[in-house]
Amino acid sequence: MKIHLKIWRQKDSQSKGEFKDYTLDDVHQELSFLEMLDTLNLKLVKKGEYPVEFDHDCREGICGQCGMMINGIAHGPLKNTTTCQLHMRSFKDGDTIYIEPFKAAAFPVVRDLKVNRSSLDHIITSGGYVSVDTGQAPEANSIPIAHEEAEAAFDAAACIGCGACVASCKNASAALFTSAKITQLELLPQGQTETSKRVISMVKQMEEEGFGHCTNTEACQVECPEDISVLNIARMNYEYNKAKILNK
Amino acid sequence: MWYVKNALTRKNLMALTGLFLSFFLIIHLFGNLQLLLPEAEAKLQYNWYSDLLADNILIKIIAMVLYLCIILHTLDAIYLTVKSKKAKGSGYVKDRRGRASKWYSRNMMFLGSIVFLFLVIHFKDFWYQFKFGELPLDANGNKDLYTLVIKAFDQLWYVIVYIIAIIALGYHLLHGVFSAHRTLGLYHPLYSKIVKYLGMAYTIIMTIGYIIIPIFIYLNR
């Protein structure tokens, strides 16, 4: 099928970007979205032009590297899907597809569709861990964890940190990401002891990175490839308020 | 409050002031419903009630809290909107993010601005007149606020402006009441759902309640 592409080209974070038009004549509908872009890039390289840069790694929907705005929606039209798991069968012959990078002040564009999401890493570094003593690994079954608790923690841990929540949010808030990480650790006994310290420093870091606030529009969960629950955000707020009121 | 830069704390303030204002709306509606009594009775009853509120020290304190809440809620909204604008960056050329959320949840500032503009008119026409204006007295010697209200709602354009403002308020409440609880940390799946539906019921009652009164007055008085 024939696909018209309008792709955001931007040399670096300083320069002004613009849409460039490309047309691919024989796109197979079983190609993944990224493979379609590979096809385009091969053409561009052969012509001596600079290929379109975009992030990708596993191409299995589990690493969280890929991510772009496809026709104005993070990861494209399919629900709960990463960009790499989107296939060209979701589009029709003759379609025009707009492709833009995720945009937020905390996600500066590196080049074209590739953005720097280190701000999310900084949030993790500020408290998204469990402090353990070095030495021999403890016996796994010495701390009993109820099945439901483990499952709930795992639901939050499913966040792959792709940044679609930030890109979909009208305030570019990272509340869903941060709260998922906080909940994941808080639900398990190993993480519980540091909850107050963790939530305060992660929320502080989230602010410092320049993310916006949460207004509970719930768009983030709808566009999240992992369907991470917005209730995590409420839990983060609860833990933050508790920590502020009780610890200070 | 300006030294608190933390968005979560600012959101808490927004939620608490918003919930107080929502609670006040219930009391205000009960007051207004007295306008629906038979004409002769309504006048004396409504004026008596207005004077009762004006003289009560407890009500005076609550009124001060109310003014403070309106101011803080507004300032907080401006602060957070500016912050959000900064966080957003350049925005998208093709933007279809709207499919994932309700329009009124994304336009709280717009809806709130309509409500704020309406409040300015509302305060000027009734609150200011009652507090500082020269109002004639009724048979019981109370200030005749009733006649002022009836005269205002005798004009069709005034009724229309009032209804538009109440509809904006309704959508503001529909998202606001639910969102406030989330902001304050209600994360229990079931209770969160219950609060969402209670918020909807509250919003519908408030909106219909406030809209019925001017229509009733326009048609009957």
Please describe what this structure looks like.
The complex is a heterodimer of chains A (248) and B (221). Chain A has 248 residues and is an alpha+beta fold. Chain A has two domains: 3-111, Ubiquitin-like (UB roll) (Roll), CATH 3.10.20.30; 117-247, Fumarate Reductase Iron-sulfur Protein, Chain B, domain 2 (Orthogonal Bundle). Chain A is 36% helix and 11% strand. Chain A contains nine helices and seven strands, in the order ββαβββββαααααααα. Chain A has helices at 33-46, 118-125, 147-157, 164-168, 175-186, 189-192, 195-208, 219-223, 231-247, and strands at 3-9, 18-24, 69-70, 73-74, 96-100, 109-111, 114-115. In chain A, the strands form two sheets. Chain A has a five-stranded mixed sheet with strand order 2-1-5-3-4. Chain A has a two-stranded antiparallel sheet with strand order 6-7. In chain A, a hairpin with a 2-residue loop joins strand 3 (69-70) and strand 4. Chain A is elongated, with a radius of gyration of 20 Å. The model of chain A has no long low-confidence stretch (mean pLDDT 95). Chain B is mainly α. Chain B has one domain (7-87, 102-220): 3 helical TM bundles of succinate and fumarate reductases (Up-down Bundle). Chain B is 79% helix and 0% strand. Chain B is built from eight helices and no strands. The longest helix of chain B has 32 residues, at 57-88. The model of chain B has no long low-confidence stretch (mean pLDDT 93). Chains A and B meet through strand 4, helix 7, helix 8 and helix 9 of A and helix 1, helix 3 and helix 7 of B.
